[in-house]
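Before the break, one more example. Copy the sequence into your notebook; we will annotate it together after we see the structure.
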Amino acid sequence: MSDARSSILASLRASRDAHPVETVASDFTVLREKRWGPAERLERVKRMMEAVHTEFVDATEQDWPAVVQAFLKDAGAKTVLYAPATEAGARLESSWADGGPELVRYDRPVDEFKEEMFTGIDAGITQTLGAIADTGSLVLWPSADEPRLLSLVPHIHIALLKADALYDTFWQVMTENRWAEGMPTNALLISGPSKTADIEQTLAYGVHGPKRLIVVVIR
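Here is what the structure looks like once it is written out:
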């Protein structure tokens, strides 16, 4: 087996050396020129995401914690998981009023409160890197301070989107944020609540992840 393997690899190397492949530079002109106006970007994102059951709520930089709290109270949420080490988490802690859903800090390894996360958390709040007009997608950048489980496990995912953090294309997101120089373990592109058509090819939402995706547009 060893001789056969060596022979095959030697043959492949010889073929590669005898027929080198010329590298062709990529042409990103189409992506560079695909543009929408500022107002049109947000309307396009909303239209495309609402088509797959995403919900939108408007807020301002001053009142978004109160808007989120009121929305979750009306939705019947009892517990809200958040990342205390983030800027958004600090705002929640300082602004959260009594009488609303209970804030639950995500400041422990998941193994220490796995059961609570999967059975006792109603909503999770995350920041976003922005949204893409071309595809109608949110961009999440998970980190040690804000792990991806915040957006994947709770039944309701609250995503905070700053109205000026809008991009035309995924290519623009990657280039302007210099992804080539360093990426997290994973970046998430989210267009709506979880869905599947595995069962009799019937489309169903909220089967293996959040049942609702709420985008809070912060103007």
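Residues 43 and 133 are 8 Å apart (CA to CA). The domain at 43-218 is CATH 3.40.50.10420 (Rossmann fold). Try to locate both features in your own notes.
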